[in-house]
Amino acid sequence: MLSQQLEKIVGPRSLGQFAAHLDRQTVGRGCGGDGVDAAGRLRRPDTSHLAVGEVGGDCFGLARATVVEGTFEVIEVPTASIEGRGVADEMKSHRSGSVGRLCGADQGRADSVLMGFFDRNRKALEQAGIDPARLPPGQYHTDRFPVLHVGSPMIYADDLSDWDLRIFGLVEEEITLDFAALTALEVVDVVTDIHCVTKWSKFDTAWTGVRLRDLYAMAGVAPAATHVVMHGEHGYSANLPLEHTMGDNILVTWAYDGLPLEVEHGFPVRTLVPHLYFWKSVKWLRGIELVDQDQPGFWEQNGYHMLGEPFAEQRFWGD
Predict the structure, then answer these.
(1) Which of 69, 120, 279, 308 is 20 to 30 A off residue 297, Cα-Cα?
(2) How confident is the model at residue 38 (pLDDT cuts 50, 70, 90)?
(3) Rounded-to-5 percentages of helix, strand, coil across the chain
(4) Is 19 within 8 Å of 7 (Cβ atoms)?
């Protein structure tokens, strides 16, 4: 059966356990904590649909079924389906071709197929004159930019009058910036590699935005602040140590490759934290909260690593 074969491939625990676990998260704990609404107020997230995506999948490895180049697409998993049928059947309805072919092999054959793919990918980098050391362990290089996320893409007013960014928490002065005010700050361009926990990496990506540390300087960081929680739409959040957000290439960004962000990549604004797995770079950013302790975000509550360094393969709890 598909579900039995998928269990062997996608992770250490069964999909049934995952479904029950995710059901507990969505119903019992609000699927990752509070978010920030358009008025800057904390609110409960919308859990009517979940998507396995850029933020990484789940602690049971569901997203591992999408690692092979050419299979990426947004997978939205309705909560009712998780409760009733399980994730495997829902994935089959969305992606019957690629998952079905992979699940038709036994565990050893699946491992061999994946390892062969990764090895060929690294050799292709060498042949192209690219240092394969840029690729973290367990990753493969792609020129594409897979679109994977939690929740449906946000659509704002044409003039972005319904969007703003709030910097709050342990700060000397809480500030709120509209898009014009944000983009009027000192602008920097960054070219960097990015790495998704679902195993793809993309090199030399070009971004435009403002450094996070410059926003901190505007608000004034209180001495007690040690961590940051980035709040997106749909109640999504990601936690970061404050020190990991102070670098030259850590941005609040609104442009990719010289053009405004596409909606599915976080328009109008997202964060860029390229030295960590890309679920830490929050789409549809609405709030930056300074806190005095590490507070797990959406995927961290669901089994993903609290830090997420790609070269240390910090994917899941305990890595």
Answers:
(1) 69
(2) very low
(3) 35, 25, 45
(4) no
Residue 68: pLDDT over 70: no
Tokens for 292, please give them. Answer: 């005095």
Q: Please give the model's pTM, rounded to 2 decimal places.
A: 0.69
Phi/psi of residue 211, nearest 5 degrees: -70, 140
pLDDT in the model for residue 153: 83
Burial 33-65 (b: 16+ CB within 10 A, else e): bbbbeeeeeeeebbbeebbbbbbbbbbbbbbbb
Say yes or no to pLDDT of 288 above 60.
yes
Q: Which domains occur in the chain, in start order? A: 2-141 (no CATH), 165-312 (3.90.420.10)
Average pLDDT over residues 109-133: 80
Q: How far apart are CA 91 and CA 93, in angstroms?
A: 5
